[in-house]
Design goal:
- The protein is mainly alpha-helical.
- Helix 15 runs antiparallel to helix 17.
Length: 454
Amino acid sequence: MTSAAAPGNNPAPSPEPSGPDPAPASGPDSVPLSAPVSAPASRPGSVSPPVARPAPRSGGAAPWKGWAAVCAVSLGIFCLITSELLPVGLLTPVGAALGVSDGTAGLMVTAPGLIAGICAPLVTVGAGRLDRRLVLCVLIALMVAANLAAALAPNFAVVLAARLLVGVSVGGFWAVAGGLAVRLVPERHVGRATALVFGGVPTASVLGVPAGTLLGELGGWRAAFAAVGGLGLVTLTALLVLLPPLPATRRITFPELPALLRENRAVRAGVVVTFFVVTGQFAAYTFVRPILQEVSGVDAEYISTLLLGYGVAGVAGNFLAGPRDAYRTLLVVSSSLTVVLALIAVLPGPAVGTVLLLAWGLAYGGVSVSVQGWMIKAAPEAPEAASSLMVAMFNFAIAAGALCGGLAVDNLSEPAAPLGGAALMLAAAATVWVTAIRHTPDRSDGQGRIGHRA
């Protein structure tokens, strides 16, 4: 599938030969949401003219080398998400050791998320024309240093400063790494490779965070931070050995980011859908434990096991969504989550709660890879810029969701959190339908693109 601007509205033709759209997946009925930005290159803040491929692929490399590089990037995502979420299981021991309350210790989770949202576009722009292999390695090295500093910290202020550096690493790495699959594997495998990269997100929740929490219980919270730093060193080595050189193909400027939002309807819609889905998710999921206990009647001793099942279902959902059309997958995901969150808020019974929780994990597992796929399809000429906008919104929405859910629980009741989440999921489904699904494709040019009615 080729992304094409509307007739009469195209910039000058690219000198590169036209090729297939490097979308993560493209079924016979999947279509790009809108034409790429067609602002003249000379206009300040405009987006560069579209090209058929966002980046050259390494020529002559053995196929296994590309997949090995994808695995190294996935390990980096796993390591970073484990590092970001590790304090969830260590709040009480860190607070007790350093003399702060659990609420203050919670800043170890909140602060990196906010910083990641800010730094996703900043790092993308600041990287300029640096080789992306170097950028990823520097960001992982920064995460290693941050975790080792936290492990040796004499007071909470040092721990919090180290956590801010983790936020820089998470935001920058995710924004840059999200669009690399198109440069590492053959085009027909991009969807699966992107799913593998983002498989590090749910896997970190299933394996990384519980393992870190267990290590903290056995050897102390400092040992847990040090272990994640050690895993970061392994990741750094893997990136250095397995990633090929990835020179930047275009320089992104700050004016380009708002220009991309302003002029590309697909990117705007993707950012809005990301906000609705992720805010709705964390409005509900932040309070999943009291919901399971108070509404579903699940015994407290079984909660951890159920959450492990939720995580395993999320991993499966990620790989099921990866090869599929991003637009339609997000419609299915958001519609399914609307129903699941509404039902888990009102239906009693441990068996019902268990089934709904597993369905919740399966559906939400497809979100990260699908929103990334949306951005690659929406702006194939500027995947890093589009990804940075999505990553920024993703992280801000995590904080917004937790805040909204907390207000709902404090002022109304536990079921109000998933019901509010269901309302946001419904808004996401409506947005996907209106902007990406309901239009009849204009196939007069053979491209299957959507016209200007979005």
